[in-house]
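Deliverable D4.2, example record:
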Amino acid sequence: MIDDKKSDGPVIEFSQVGYHSQSGEVLRDLNLEVRQGETLVLLGRSGSGKTTTLKLINRLLQPSTGEVRIYGRSTRDWDVIRLRRSIGYAIQDVGLFPHFTIGRNIGVVPRLENWPAAHIQDRVQELLQLVGLGKETASRYPRELSGGQRQRVGVARALAADPPILLMDEPFGALDPITRAELQKEFLSLQKRLQKTVIFVTHDLNEALILGTRIALLDQGALISVLTPEEFLRSNDPSVAAYVSAFDSGFRNQLQKGSS
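Output generated by the structure prediction step:
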């Protein structure tokens, strides 16, 4: 596993990072630092480069130019299996194995790490409690759970081996507003207790403002700004102001529809 005490510097660094796919440039000249224990939200519309940025951290993608460093060490120099098992990854569609019980789904990485069976069982029960699910959930299958419950399991699985870094790619995006708000509140409570270094992808400004320590706005593959939620709302940067204005306009439209 990654030793999170190896460096006093940033946990994650992007230095002049560019990424080119077959269809063209996806990211360009990305310079970004992620600090220990913070939740950095990557915000932007579809196609802005958010998910690509996330995948460069756990080496699902390799940068075309520049360098990504974890605890001061280039991702190219990490053993890729070690790197990925040391970084939790939670995504929108969860990706649970349908033929595995919930307990077995949560315990995937600990089993790969050869944890003793009793330790895995204890960890599964601990995590189910942590994400607000009953111990009986361990024996159920994904098809028996609601979307919100499956998403909680996805978060538990990402935390199973106690990774210092957690990547979350629109994990609550497919949920109804009430369940989404509940899980956002649960996430804030978890992060307050666990103090993981989290990179959270969303296109929803409200979610970014609620969850983020800082917000990194991406647009067409370029980093526009990195601001605290308070700074983001007050910013005079045209791209930031346009994003806030679009969100406010959408919110007002929803209120008008509800009152008509």
